[in-house]
Amino acid sequence: MPDVSVAIPVRDGGALFAEVLRALSSQTVEHELIVCDSGSRDDSLQLARAHGARVLQIAPERFSHGGTRNLLVRAALGAHVALLTQDSVPADERWLERLLEGFALAGDVALVYGPYRPRRQASPAVRMELEGWFDSLSPDGEARVERLDERERASLPASELIGRRGFFTDANACLARAAWERIPFRDVPYAEDRVLALDMLRAGYAKAFVPQAAVIHSHTYTTSQQLRRSFDEWRGLREIYGWREPASPRHLLSRLRGSLGLARVTLAGEGAPVARRFTALAAVTRQQLASLCGALLGSRAERMPAAVRRRLSLEGRAGFVPLELSDPTGPANDRSS
Prior knowledge:
The protein is an alpha/beta fold. It is built from twelve helices and eleven strands. Helix content is 43%, strand content 13%.
């Protein structure tokens, strides 16, 4: 069997899932394809099987972000398991090859991930948000390895790992099976990928970011959806890191000015016509205001009734589940079996 498996959870993947499968069929590295379907009503199952996938099936109520990925990795045969979502399309035929090269950067690398690129139809606001974030992870475009030293593993607060050092996404990633067998995903309702990265880092493993291993992955949200997406994200940051977004006018204005300043520089550098610049800056302003509002609400979600949290959540999630991340190998916060 190939040394690497590609694992994808899916439910009603539609046309984008078909694009993912076509992109995988042209990869330069031979791989096993394994898919876990949680109740698709479209042709996702038939598509997966037509592309040679081994298919697992679970009931919709059994799906969880961490638990389902544990199920996939456990069933995979490869020593490395690459992870995608049903709408993350490998950007070229060397996507998997480049992810695997990340493990050669250092002997302790257990996680490798790559960036998202916006879809062709993505708005300027979405494009600048994605490009700005992933460019910040490696300003020189070179692969980067992150790890914690021995002192940090024992004492560094989780809140110190919110940014680049702790970031990881399983929408475009690969993990070493041997490391996962020691540190699997936790069965958490949100941000299972960031929790896995923190657990791995605290256990002494390193993670690598490979800018050339890109996928096409972006979403277009209405202003309301942007607020609700931001609510989910910042609730997750509160649950995982204990982070609460500052509510001071100075902080909020600073964030807004920073985003608009970056947008102006980007649009000017592209030589965008004046009318297009105004339209794009208005869209960025709307997006940022919605994001800031969602951030303020999400990072204070523990104060809200469950019904309000459900209403504000794009995922419809009512809960608030703070995590204890100080001991990744201990009994707290059970992992999915």
